[in-house]
Backbone:
């Protein structure tokens, strides 16, 4: 569980006990109505999970998920009806409370053992998938591929919410409910939707009352802020937003009840009202920044690590003029806030105003790691081609927490699986045996020592990879189907295209474009390992296959010469054609094979993503030594970047390598760049020119960290002095000192320029 950044965290699990009782009561009463069951469970969570308005807040809305409840993914507590057993056990062993309280805890622990959604999904998974995808505990179990239980990355139509408000949304549902020919389940969905909107109004009223009570004891400017907030909360209950404050407050409150953690294209749904209020002197720029910075800090207080996207810029906006003005404002708020979240993102293109790009560069060079940069001139046509959609729809692409593409409030493409390309190489070399797990898994093929040519072995590696890709695709479709039978996720459904019109929830046919993505890890290490096998064993014959296998099994302890040969073999990232071509060949296979699965399993699309976050460290822990010279358990190369051992020969050769794999035939590929403060001070113009060249030549995306390497070293030695040092891990940013030591080490060892 995440430790949410609230001032006064709850001291016991009474809320969780009450939630459990509410669920059990509602399950009996609404046995055939999952929609009303969800409503009753949400009523048990809200306002119980909510925290008070704090001293500096100009917006209302903080919550703290506990170890039992209802959410969408782990950042919102958990997937569906969830329990974190270890936390409940800890409370039993170390908490205080009456005998009745402890009895309730015991009962709750036993009840949710088989009732939680994770268990429900895994227990009902087809047998052949259980054999391929051994466990959802991929952080602890050595696996070539694993299922990820969640429904991540729902981007709601907040533009519609701001345009029509809660009354407009209620009217839309009521009018659909009055139409003839509705099935019982459709009536249940629409009726429950109205109940959920009423709950949202009740929460707005809950915070309105709190704001007015606080205002009574306040003075001066603080009293004015609280009364303005109370009025905004009041207006949101009865009308569509008429001010920037009202719009931000309504969107944020909807997020809390969703529960949703990715915000979307804020310049579209906030830009008009922001400009109206500034131009008409409703608020000044300082007051607007106060609202936006508070909004960003509330997102950061979710402590959800890999999500919390706020996006500005790009093609496809209905209001580019006010959108660009808002983009400048939001970039400045990001620069001043300096928080890990939101994952502030700029979509840019050839017509993006110069001042917006300059503001973005200033923000990045000051060490925020934001904005993340996405090149619409590459991505939009790439999405159009890869997904087979119109240019208009392609312009509405949006990226999830780590960088997976989908379409705002039109598609869901939750990344529900991870494929460990390095582990698959280890297994293929051993003929289908995992030496770390100690079991036979997947296809049984000849070992590397039995292969007569590299092409023969490479074919076996691809066979193992295809086996898991196919299983992951089938799991994705299965997860959507079984989730739809259990969870309507009413609040997200209400602001998704098609759901109200069809009177169906997201995962029971409401979503217009149900897609999927598969996360790939260790791809660079696998490609470099394959390149070493080809060169050392089959081309140069400087090492026998048996000697290589012996060296890997020994983790190179008695094989320093052999490890040096492997380390010296061609590596991706230094503009080496032999190594780069291997990565291109491998990713082309992954791209094509993954995409082929969509039609077979009944999804609109199914695509790979190369977006390593901390999993390049986590998953690599359970992989033995590899032929690229990497020692057992050490981190993989991050995302699409070279291994840390690679001498890139400078920025330009590395960029040349980064541009060789396709930047469009997938659903996202992370590119991390790290520049030292010293380089920017001495050669800023050259760095900007190099990055411009990267984008002009087809680079799709860049996540840039500006930090002194010495700062990282000192932060590891004296973390208490570097609490505000932010780094880009992969698909997310983090305070450096909060990361695990092995992740810190991996970041420290990455190439810097």
Residues:
């Amino acid at each position: 569980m995440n430790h949410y950044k609230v001032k006064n965290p709850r001291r016991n699990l009474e809320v969780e006990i009450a939630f459990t009782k509410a669920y059990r009561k509602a399950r009996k009463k609404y046995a055939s109505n999952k929609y009303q069951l969800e409503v009753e469970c949400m009523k048990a969570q809200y306002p119980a999970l909510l925290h008070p308005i704090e001293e500096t807040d100009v917006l209302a809305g903080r919550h703290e998920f506990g170890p039992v409840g209802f959410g969408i993914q782990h950042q919102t507590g958990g997937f569906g009806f969830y329990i974190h057993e270890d936390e409940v056990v800890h409370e039993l062993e170390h908490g205080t409370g009456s005998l009745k309280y402890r009895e309730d805890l015991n009962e709750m622990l036993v009840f949710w053992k088989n009732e939680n959604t994770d268990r429900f999904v895994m227990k009902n998974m087809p047998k052949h998938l259980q054999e391929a995808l051994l466990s959802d505990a991929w952080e602890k179990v050595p696996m070539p591929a694993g299922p990820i239980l969640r429904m991540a990355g729902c981007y709601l139509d907040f533009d519609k919410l701001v345009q029509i408000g809660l009354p407009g949304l209620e009217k839309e549902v009521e009018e659909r409910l009055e139409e003839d020919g509705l099935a019982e389940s459709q009536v249940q969905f629409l009726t429950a939707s109205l109940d959920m909107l009423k709950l949202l109004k009740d929460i707005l009223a809950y915070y309105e009352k709190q704001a007015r009570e606080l205002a009574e004891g306040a003075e001066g400017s603080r009293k004015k802020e609280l009364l303005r907030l109370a009025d905004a909360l009041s207006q949101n209950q009865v009308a569509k937003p008429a001010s920037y404050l009202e719009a931000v407050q309504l969107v944020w409150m909807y997020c809390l009840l969703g529960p949703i953690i990715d915000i979307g294209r804020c310049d579209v749904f906030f830009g008009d009202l922001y400009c109206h209020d500034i131009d008409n002197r409703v608020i000044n720029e300082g007051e607007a920044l106060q609202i936006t910075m508070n909004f960003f800090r509330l997102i950061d207080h979710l402590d959800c690590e890999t999500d919390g996207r706020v996006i500005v810029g790009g093609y496809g906006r209905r209001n580019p003029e006010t959108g660009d003005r808002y983009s400048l404002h939001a970039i400045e708020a990001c620069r001043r806030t300096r928080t890990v979240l939101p994952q502030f993102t700029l979509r840019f293109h050839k017509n993006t105003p110069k001042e917006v790009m300059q503001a973005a560069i200033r923000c990045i060079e000051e060490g925020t790691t934001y904005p993340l940069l996405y090149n619409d001139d590459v991505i939009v046509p790439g999405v159009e081609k890869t997904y087979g959609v119109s240019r208009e729809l392609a312009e509405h692409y949006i990226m999830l927490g780590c960088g997976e593409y989908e379409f705002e409030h039109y598609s869901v493409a939750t990344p529900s699986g991870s494929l460990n390309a390095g582990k698959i190489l280890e297994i293929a070399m051993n003929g289908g045996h995992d030496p770390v797990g100690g079991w036979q898994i997947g296809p049984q093929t000849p070992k590397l020592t039995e292969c007569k040519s590299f092409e023969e072995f490479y074919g076996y590696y691809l066979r193992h990879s295809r086996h898991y890709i196919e299983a992951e695709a089938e799991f994705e479709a299965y997860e959507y189907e079984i989730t739809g039978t259990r969870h309507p996720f009413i609040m997200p459904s209400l602001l998704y295209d098609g759901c109200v019109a069809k009177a169906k929830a997201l995962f029971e046919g409401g979503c217009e474009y149900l897609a999927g993505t598969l996360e790939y890890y260790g791809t660079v290490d696998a490609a470099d390992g394959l390149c070493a096998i080809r060169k050392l064993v089959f081309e140069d014959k400087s090492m026998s296959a048996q000697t290589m296998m012996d060296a890997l099994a020994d983790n190179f302890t008695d094989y320093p010469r052999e490890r040096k040969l492997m380390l010296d073999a061609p590596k991706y990232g230094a503009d080496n054609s032999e190594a780069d071509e291997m990565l291109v060949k491998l990713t082309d296979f992954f791209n094509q094979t993954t995409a082929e699965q969509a039609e077979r399993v009944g999804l609109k699309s199914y695509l790979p993503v190369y977006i390593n976050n901390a999993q390049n460290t986590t998953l690599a822990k359970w992989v033995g030594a590899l032929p690229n010279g990497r020692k057992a358990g050490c981190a993989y190369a991050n995302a699409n970047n070279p291994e840390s051992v690679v001498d890139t020969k400078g920025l330009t050769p590395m960029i040349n390598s980064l541009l060789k794999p396709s930047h469009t035939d997938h659903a996202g590929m992370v590119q991390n760049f790290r520049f030292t403060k010293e380089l920017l001070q001495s050669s800023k113009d050259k760095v900007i020119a190099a990055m411009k060249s990267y984008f002009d030549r087809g680079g799709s995306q860049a996540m840039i960290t500006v930090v002194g390497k010495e700062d990282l070293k000192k932060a590891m030695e004296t973390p208490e002095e570097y609490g505000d040092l932010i780094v880009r891990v992969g698909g997310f940013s983090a305070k450096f000192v909060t990361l695990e030591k092995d992740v810190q080490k991996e970041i420290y060892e990455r190439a810097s320029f």
Q: What stands out?
A: The mean pLDDT is 94. The chain has 29 helices and 22 strands. Residues 302 and 474 are 32 Å apart (CA to CA). The longest helix spans residues 184-216.
